[in-house]
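Box 4.2: Ligand-aware structure prediction
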Amino acid sequence: MHIVGARPNFVKAAPVVAALEARGVRQSVVHTGQHYDDRMSAVFFRELGLPRPDVDLGVGSGSHAVQTAALMTGLEQEFISRSPGLVVVYGDVNSTLAAGVVAAKLHIPVAHVEAGLRSFDWSMPEEVNRRLTDQLSDLCFATSPEAVGHLAAEGVGVHRVHLVGNPMIDTLLGSLDRFDTAALRERLKLPESYVAATLHRPANVDDPEVVARLVARLHEVADQIDVVMPVHPRGRAALTEAGLADHPRMHLLEPLGYIDFVTLVRASTAVVTDSGGVQEETTILRVPCLTLRPNTERPITITHGSNRLVTDSELPGLVSKILAGESFGAATVADVPPLWDGHAGERIAAILADWMAGAPAAGAEPRA
Ligand code: UD1
Ligand code: UDP
């Protein structure tokens, strides 16, 4: 039983579900309803070939405690009534942690896709979700070698950990022939060259003072090049209030579906973001990525990719350097991260299928 609830979950789950389907494994998909707008949820099911969820718990938004409690209550009923043999959770959102806790207490094995990422920043809700989910998981699927090291350092038994690559990149590579830049430019009336921007981290969009500063910096970027920004619902009110739209070269959009969004990124001059997934996608697309954060749980996107952590005050200057054609990024390795090759879903499915058949692959070790 796959548990998904928020936008990045859908992108990660699609290749795993498809690969298990190809092996004839019986599976179900539970949508928690953490994200619910069509543009944050249903569009991904339509575009990524995900099966219609067997159930949508309709949990919706709320404070962390309210949302997590509703997630746990809904998932507990679901797990009891359907008795899944294994629960698969994705990433680091509240739906991930809630499913892990509930399954573990019902003695249902848990597999965590994208285990072991660490920002070492406990002020991020995602860091709490990741660390606890990994402790609860019988199978930890890691996207990068340093994630394997983090799990080992935290005492997660080596037999539970599998380095499998990155299913989000499976989705990207599997969609390459669908990214039609010319059609998107025409449909969205995009400028010839532009920076694509996304912001949704609480540290960037929840505090009005921080938001005002970021809006001023984005306007300094827009003084140099058009900025196209699909606005996440979390930051919408604060960014609007701070006057984000009040610049002739700022183009604000509703959240985009996956194909439109990656097409937008692929054709951009550079990206400004605080998204986890976008740091990974730009690593493969080799688009300069300016990440407005003091840390990242995905350092491999810096060493093997086009990502760089930046402060808001550095942003306009770095954009002007990119526009002047100066080399960008700190990548010390020319290759993309190991196993980010489009086959992570198949590796995960193979391990899961063996595990469920009672013949744990590479020593996968049931915890219960
Ligand atoms: C969540 C994840 C974050 C992830 C992000 C991906 C947690 C703690 N955070 O953040 O790790 O990077 O998803 O996008 O799980 N809203 C809508 N429509 C929707 C969904 C949300 O308007 O379909 C608005 C609501 O006002 C809600 C707010 O967005 O209160 C935040 O939603 P929530 O799911 O709590 O967290 P995100 O900020 O989206
Ligand atoms: N994404 C999208 N439309 C958008 C913004 C992002 O389809 O308008 C995709 C993006 O390509 C990536 C995923 O959503 O695959 C990442 O989600 P998000 O940034 O919301 O979450 P995070 O990765 O930070 O947890």
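In the box above, the bound molecule is uridine-5'-diphosphate. The chain has a mean pLDDT of 96.
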